[in-house]
Design goal:
Largest sheet: 7 strands, mixed
Distance between the termini: 48 Å
Number of strands: 9
Strand order of the largest sheet: 4-3-2-5-6-9-7
Radius of gyration: 22 Å
Order of helices and strands: HHEHEHEHEHEHEHHEEEHHHH
Number of helices: 13
Length: 300
């Protein structure tokens, strides 16, 4: 492994793929980063210490894993591709702080990983170059399972990073924006052009850092209802909030009653969901939750 580290990352990637006869799978969204400067930016954003623990999702052939292992006390790399697991174990056989786990980040028991491997670390982080096709589900899972994380630093599609960091009233503001910003402070660390990956994807990427809040950004008594309201509000972006909520959530009420609830929350029924900030969604949640006899149904 030590010999590999002296090579440029692009040469390292080529050599390992050739040595082990690996043909990358498009179905798994495998695009391996070949720019050491971007790796450095990811590591800096993660703010690791010698007492940190890291869950890495999708290590590929370990270029980022190697950098993490140089900084952290313990690394658990979760890899879905069974062909790469023995390769990774071979490459990191002399690095006892690196544990390779064969599994799907969408289904693996993350809390069990924390209990088994990270009892002796002072901070826990997720660092990953995420496949584009599962970015949102993985991020949502990491946030909603309330793992004891300090931050999540991820390489993702540029457009998804734009959505995570978007402000109300902008074209990129979405239900994902609200969910991410409810649990974390989101910022973009770097833009990453497509030509620094093998194979080259069709879109550019970005590195995003999600710093987990000690408490959610707004206080809501019914978190499940809060997110149902958010999803309903964004289900049909061109519709007013009145029409979206009536069609997708408050199906048992007539429009006049839905309008009354919105006005009670001090929200103009003609506004669209993309214009509401988190505090307004929280206020609307409290008003709707107080109507105990409402039959809620969400078809989005």
């Amino acid at each position: 492994m030590e010999g590999m580290t002296q090579k440029p990352i692009s040469v390292r990637t080529r050599d390992i793929l050739n040595q082990y006869g690996i043909i990358l799978k498009k179905s798994l969204g495998q695009n391996f980063l070949t720019d050491s400067h971007v790796l450095d930016k990811i590591i800096r954003a993660a703010d690791l210490t010698p007492d940190s623990g890291v869950i890495e999702i999708g290590p590929g052939i370990g270029a980022l894993t190697e950098r993490i292992a140089d900084q952290a006390k313990k690394v658990v790399a979760v890899e879905i591709d069974g062909r790469l697991v023995p390769v990774l174990k071979d490459l990191f056989q002399t690095r006892p702080q690196v544990e390779i786990v064969h599994g799907d980040a969408l289904t693996v028991d993350l809390h069990a990983l924390v209990d088994e491997y990270f009892q002796k670390v002072n901070s826990l982080h997720v660092v990953a170059n995420l496949p584009y096709y599962v970015t949102s589900p993985i991020v949502i899972r990491l946030l909603t399972e309330r793992l004891p994380l300090k931050n999540i630093v991820i390489m993702i599609q540029k457009e998804v990073a734009d959505r995570m960091t978007a402000k109300p009233g902008t074209k990129d503001y979405s239900s994902l924006s609200v969910l991410v910003q409810y649990f974390a402070e989101a910022k973009e660390v770097a833009r990453v052009p497509s030509h620094v990956f093998v194979p080259r994807p069709q879109v550019d990427s970005a590195v995003a850092c999600l710093t987990i809040r000690d408490q959610p950004a707004v206080e809501v008594g019914n978190q499940s209802l809060f997110f149902k309201i958010v999803r309903a509000a964004f289900a049909q972006r061109r519709k007013t909030l009145l029409n979206s909520l009536h069609a997708n959530l408050l199906t048992s009420l007539d429009k006049a009653e839905v309008e009354r609830l919105l006005r009670e929350a001090d929200i103009d029924p003609k506004r669209r969901g993309e214009t509401l900030d988190l505090a307004e969604y929280a206020r609307l949640t409290e008003v709707i939750d107080a109507k105990a006899d409402t039959n809620l149904r969400l078809d989005v």
